[in-house]
């Protein structure tokens, strides 16, 4: 893992985030201009000779206090409203559809394939560059908010309801997505990786995602099954088909673990499995403190091989 993924709306890599950044600059400059004029008038008023001209004063009050702010604020409002139709327009027909459900405290990600099939993964979202993608967002428990600061968002994920979000990433790279609504103890540890890549790389990744896992003869697979991990986690192609926790079919290929809180490295994975509840307070997965080093080595080696 090289540098940390970008998480800045001002260094944006997507249409939605670019619009937010533009609004931010426009509002800041507009606000600064109003402030300068109001302060300028106040200073002018202080140093006015005591015998003042009534007409001039009235003009200043009406002009500076009512006409000028009305013009500037109306301008800023129209500028902001003009962006709405584009934000509300749905992604064009045939765009990649990705369903994301917020779960305390991770992300269930489901890709819709052109064949109509759906394929599940977790905590890492790949997007093709310069193409519109349509997100269908919901929650499986409390209200979460889906936000990729560098690309766009943010939209609430509400249980029993489907909210839509269109994103248009414009720059290849690795970005960080976050939950932007307080949702409990590990809210701050509910993030995800976003990989924006070329269409070619994206197609390759999507077809890899569809292949079931191999390596059932691996000793770690026996540990996984024996410890009951499959009651909560799925590994497609094996008998593990739990749906409570993140799908682990290709966990070895992901950038991070624990919903983007630790880089996906063997030492971190071992630490996570042994001390889950300490690393992420409130998490449903128990800490497997009693697992032997030998078993843990095999398990981590097996999970790392799931690519
Ligand atoms: Cu989910 Cu905060």
TrEMBL record:
Domain of life of the native organism: Bacteria
Primary localization: membrane
Domain Cytochrome oxidase subunit II copper A binding positions: 93-208
Membrane topology: Multi-pass membrane protein
Domain Cytochrome c: 215-307
Keyword Electron transport listed: yes
Residue stretches spanning the membrane: 23-47, 59-82
The entry's keywords: Copper, Electron transport, Heme, Iron, Membrane, Metal-binding, Respiratory chain, Transmembrane, Transmembrane helix, Transport
Cited CDD domains: CuRO_CcO_Caa3_II
Subcellular location field: Membrane
Protein function: Subunits I and II form the functional core of the enzyme complex. Electrons originating in cytochrome c are transferred via heme a and Cu(A) to the binuclear center formed by heme a3 and Cu(B).
Family: Belongs to the cytochrome c oxidase subunit 2 family.
Name used for this protein in its record: Cytochrome aa3 subunit 2
């Amino acid at each position: 893992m090289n540098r940390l993924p970008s998480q800045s709306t001002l260094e944006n890599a997507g249409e939605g985030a670019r619009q937010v950044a533009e609004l931010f600059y426009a509002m800041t400059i507009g606000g600064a201009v109003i402030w300068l004029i109001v302060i300028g008038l106040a200073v002018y008023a202080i140093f006015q000779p005591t015998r003042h001209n009534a007409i001039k004063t009235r003009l200043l009050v009406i002009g500076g206090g009512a006409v000028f702010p009305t013009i500037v604020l109306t301008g800023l409002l129209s500028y902001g409203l003009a962006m709405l139709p584009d934000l509300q327009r749905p992604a064009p027909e045939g765009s990649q559809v990705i369903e994301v459900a917020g779960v305390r405290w991770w992300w269930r990600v489901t890709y819709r394939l052109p064949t109509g099939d759906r394929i599940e993964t977790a905590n890492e979202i790949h997007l093709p560059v310069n193409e519109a993608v349509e997100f269908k967002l919901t929650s499986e428990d409390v209200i979460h908010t889906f936000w990729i600061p560098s690309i766009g968002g943010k939209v609430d994920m509400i249980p029993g309801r489907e909210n839509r979000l269109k994103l248009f990433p414009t720059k290849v790279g690795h970005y960080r997505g976050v939950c932007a609504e307080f949702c409990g103890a590990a809210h701050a540890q509910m993030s995800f990786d976003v990989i924006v890549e070329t269409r070619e790389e994206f197609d390759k990744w999507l077809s890899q995602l569809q292949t079931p896992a191999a390596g059932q003869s691996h000793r770690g697979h026996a540990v996984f099954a024996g410890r009951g991990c499959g009651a909560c986690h799925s590994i497609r192609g094996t008998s593990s088909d739990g749906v409570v926790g993140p799908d682990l079919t290709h966990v070895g290929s992901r950038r991070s673990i624990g919903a983007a809180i630790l880089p996906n490295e063997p030492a971190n994975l071992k630490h996570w499995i042994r001390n889950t509840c300490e690393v992420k307070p409130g998490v449903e997965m128990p800490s497997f403190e009693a697992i032997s080093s030998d078993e843990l080595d095999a398990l981590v080696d097996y999970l790392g091989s799931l690519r």
